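Cross-check.
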Amino acid sequence: MYEKNAVHPFPPVFDGDCEILILGSFPSVKSREEGFFYGHPQNRFWRVTAAVLCEDVPSSPEEKKAFLLRNHISLWDVVAVCRIEGSADSTIKNAVPNDIVPLIKNSKISKIFTNGQKAHALYKKYIQPKTGIDAVALPSTSPANASWSTEKLISAWKAINTKEISI
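Predicted model, tokenized:
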């Protein structure tokens, strides 16, 4: 059953030192219930990003926010309001995008990544014309993307690691 005019329930993770923006499509039912990004225990976002950034997996929303900001990563979703059936990206209709431009103008964001193909398509359609910044599509960390193992996801998501290794 479609949720009529589902509204994104929480703000972006963001501060002026952010260099990277990661965009999902729209929060899952579990994330909306918990009031924070990637709240479903089977979603691999936190395990993958922690592995890529060589940190412990954060657990609470406060730890997750601190983890992102410590790594200069802003996190939000492309869609502010939509019709959606459950958590399925494929059912998103009547999407109204979030206004990403203020995040970019008030930070050091120079790279944008999308978590999955639906987020990427929505970004290209609604937001890229306003930002002029190409986004890099990363494979979805959703449990629905079962063809990608956690190890394969970690390899692909290494693109978000901007820490320079000096020898």
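The chain is about 30% helix and 20% strand. Helices lie at 29-34, 45-52, 61-70, 101-105, 117-131, 150-157. Passed to J.P. for a second look.
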